[in-house]
Give the backbone structure.
Amino acid sequence: MIRETIVTLTIAGSALFTLASAATAAEVNIYTTREPGLIQPLLDSFKASTGINVNTVFLKDGMPERVLAEGESSPADIMMAVDAGNLVDLVEKGVTQPVSSDLLSKAIPAELRDADGNWFALSMRARVLYAEKNLDLAAFNYEDLSDPKWKGKVCIRSGQHPYNTALFADFVAHYGADETEKWLTGLKANLARKAGGGDRDGAKDILGGICDIAIANSYYVGLMRSGKGGEEQVAWGNAIKVILPTFKNGGTQVNVSGAAVAKHAPNKAEAIKLLEYLVSDEAQKIYAEANFEYPVKAGVAVDPIIASLGTLNIDKTPLSEIVSHRKQASVLAEKVGFDN
């Protein structure tokens, strides 16, 4: 009887040890507004190299509000977002904490991360020019979009879309509100159709003869030309040539996907380790291949389709400064009736 009791206790003790081990297994929890499938290859690679489990929760919107509501008991370790404005919003709503990492600072240019370490860009996309492939055009400045020679020849999505609000905000950062209003007025006068649709519609409409040029994101070129967007979109992608525009006193406007460590992250060390992994050569290469994005780390090769667009020289205006002009840019677009 005594022996049976000892065996039972031993078995029970073993079971408790197993449960305790499982409960304390290293993990990191991600709240993300980006489809988890887009980053799953990165997370699988991270787990394979570190043994750390990664759990993801997809939130279409309302991420800062959810983290605030959860308070100190929030399981969120990392918050991932698309668009620099969304990253800054996380900071302004008080749900992030600063991170000090030499590895992150060395890998990510200063203009692509928060000065206090509250958020970090992990991949980039450029706001580029789609042009009819036979158009005699080798270079372009964003300022040229308001040139009357393009009257009735420009396609673009809504001026209130975050992609364009970021571009307009960058213009404000370069030239101020008055010059931006004049530029937006000229750009609106040059539209071939009402501002709207998506970025790929610009390529479609160039093929259809509706416009000669369009402003859109770089990664859509990869999606179209690779066939990932469907057979019809291959024709759209092949109907255009792509130019990397610049500001006359700067570079090409970019936006980012990035991440921040949550204020009450229960697994802070693992969260930082994941962020550091995501800027490694290996992870940055996966970013480039998975969604035709630009790596933030210098020296990592981009997808051949994106490489064919030319050398990207990003605008040096800090993203945090650009984001500070978002509201003003939106008001100016509304003032000139950009979407009307």
In short: The first helix runs from residue 2 to 23. The CA atoms of residues 175 and 249 lie 10 Å apart. The chain has two domains: 2-124+255-302, 126-253+314-335.
